[in-house]
Design goal:
The protein has about 525 residues and is of the alpha+beta class. The strands form 6 sheets. A 4-stranded antiparallel beta sheet has the order 7-8-2-18. The chain is elongated, with a radius of gyration of 33 Å. The chain starts with 5 loop residues before the first helix and ends in a 9-residue tail after the last helix.
């Protein structure tokens, strides 16, 4: 093994060149990195919340409210479907997972069942539908969500919420936010560099559910305000408190929205331009063609933004939302709409702000601890193995540090304070490999073997132990990364990178340098044998 192979020299040289090239941008200011040529790597380390400062939010997904809303929508679908089929009902009773219909004419049970079966919807990959229709006898039918669908709503809502939150934070320009799941229904958001947690909370927490619904002009708003709201309508308000009686049935929702942007109305005031997908454009066109001369409401999170009158069919799939928006309000609303609607409300369970001063203190403490640990290791290696073998270990350590920084910059990993602890630990692990190799060399030299045989046996016999130790560390790091969150994952990621770079630097680099020394010096005695 102790040979000056050309491929080993080439690999070490290339790792040094690329490591320095990728790690170098960390020594530059943001302005200097921006001015680098396009072919030069410009990514630097991303500092985590504890190092850079920023905002921390612990959010809980209101899964119960989401389930209630989906059941409410199902009940309204039942009401509309039976009405369109011309089937009269005596009562529609809402249940935990659906609705039970009592028919006015029990003989039409089969017809009602067929109408509700059309609401079951498409089946999933496993061949199961999310809804089920049932005949209950005595003129009653039921439409409800399956138990599997009800059970999966929570997990699905959390997963969808994480993606929506991520898109919204990205629209703020926050770099490398950490958004992770905690438990069954909680989300942890860490936004390094975001100094305004109130703005972050406002953008994240707004549900942004946009719907287009017809205004109920057949019934009186005054009666609705007095408490007599028709079963197929709901009473809503706008920002100034003006009441609107709106049909419950949703014509088109924000799910069909493909793009939103800030525009201007006929008076030059800020407005929101939007575009629907193919399905949304068709449904919106059909709804506006059938209701010319009637008002419809544009509703965001239960508040009426505007209620214009339909003058002509809108078939192009585009439209404009007007209102008393400022530029900032319109821009924020556009970001919310483009990010998508949250499937369920979010409540803030905990909020925390880390100031830039605390982050700077953490950076200084981390840098000091890393430097101190490195110095202690260097002193130990020099005292234990002399300037030649100890110096080779130090060179390997320096290359190890460069490669770790380069790998984290390339992958845009976030460095946290626990990550710095992982960095220090990798230095110790790297030196541990050198200690194993050197001690094996000593044993072989003391047993009377030649210098070349002792060095070769040192690498060969220590390799199994080094491999076992690093595989164990790697498995532990992978477990922490998969099941941990936040700082734990930062520690695990740094440790994982360090496992690979430390084995490379402590074994291959030491082989190349010692082989070169052996070739040029031709020693008669191993310096560390004494």
């Amino acid at each position: 093994m102790i040979q000056l192979s050309r491929w080993k020299v080439t690999l070490v040289a290339l790792s040094l060149v690329f490591g320095v090239l990728l790690a170098f941008p960390n020594l530059l200011s943001p302005a200097q990195r921006a001015s680098l040529p396009g072919w030069v790597p410009s990514n630097a380390l991303n500092l985590g919340l504890d190092l850079q400062g920023g905002s921390y939010l612990l959010l809980e997904v209101d899964v119960a409210a989401m389930r209630e809303k989906r059941v409410d929508n199902l009940v309204e679908d039942v009401r509309v479907s039976l009405r369109e089929a011309g089937i009269a009902t005596n009562q529609i009773t809402r249940e935990a997972g659906g609705a039970v219909v009592t028919l006015a004419d029990p003989s039409r049970q089969d017809a009602a069942y067929e109408a509700l079966s059309g609401l079951i919807g498409p089946v999933n990959a496993g061949g199961a539908a999310e809804r089920q229709a049932q005949r209950l006898g005595q003129g009653r039918v039921r439409l409800s969500f399956t138990q599997a669908t009800m059970d999966s709503m929570g997990s699905t809502a959390v997963d969808q919420s994480i993606e929506v939150v991520r898109r919204r934070i990205d629209s703020l320009g926050t770099r490398e936010p950490s958004i992770t799941r905690q438990g069954a229904e909680r989300i942890v958001v860490q936004a390094p560099g975001e100094s305004d947690p109130a703005a972050l909370e406002r953008v994240i927490g707004q549900t942004a559910q946009l719907t287009f619904q017809m205004v109920d002009v057949e019934n009186s708003v005054v009666d609705a305000v007095a408490g007599r709201v028709p079963p197929d309508a709901q009473l809503l308000q706008d920002d100034v408190g003006t009441p609107y009686l709106v049909k419950r049935r949703v014509l088109v929702s924000g799910e069909n929205l493909t793009r939103a942007g800030v525009g201007a109305d006929e008076s030059g005031r800020p407005a929101i331009d939007f575009r629907f997908d193919g399905q949304g454009a068709r449904r919106f066109g059909e709804a506006t063609a059938a209701n010319i001369g009637r008002p419809f409401a544009i509703i965001l999170d239960g508040k009426v933004i505007s209620a214009p009158t339909i003058q002509s069919p809108i078939t192009g799939g585009t439209g404009q939302i007007t209102g008393s928006f400022s530029i900032a309000e319109a821009s924020e609303l556009v970001n919310l709409l483009n990010g998508g609607a949250l499937p369920a409300p979010l409540t803030v369970e905990e909020r925390r702000t880390v100031t830039a001063e605390l982050g700077a203190d953490a950076v200084a403490a981390g840098a000091l601890s890393t430097a101190l640990g490195f110095v202690i290791i260097v002193v130990f290696m020099f005292l234990a193995y002399g300037f030649l073998f100890g110096g080779i270990s130090v060179i390997g350590l320096l290359l190890n540090g460069i490669l770790i920084v380069a790998a984290m910059s390339l992958t845009q990993a976030t460095l946290t304070l626990p990550g710095i602890a992982g960095l220090i630990l990798t230095f110790a692990v790297a030196v541990d490999a050198n200690v194993l190799i050197y001690e094996r060399m000593r044993d072989e030299a003391r047993a009377g073997r030649s210098v070349i045989a002792s060095m070769d046996a040192g690498f060969n016999k220590a390799w199994g132990t080094i491999l076992d130790a690093n595989l164990t560390t790697l498995v532990a790091a992978l477990i922490m990364f998969m099941f941990g969150a936040g700082p734990v994952r930062g520690f695990a990621w740094t440790l994982t990178i360090g496992v690979f770079t430390s084995v490379f630097s402590s074994v291959l680099v030491a082989q190349v340098l010692l082989a070169y020394w052996l070739k040029t010096a031709r020693p008669k005695k191993l310096p560390i044998a004494e």
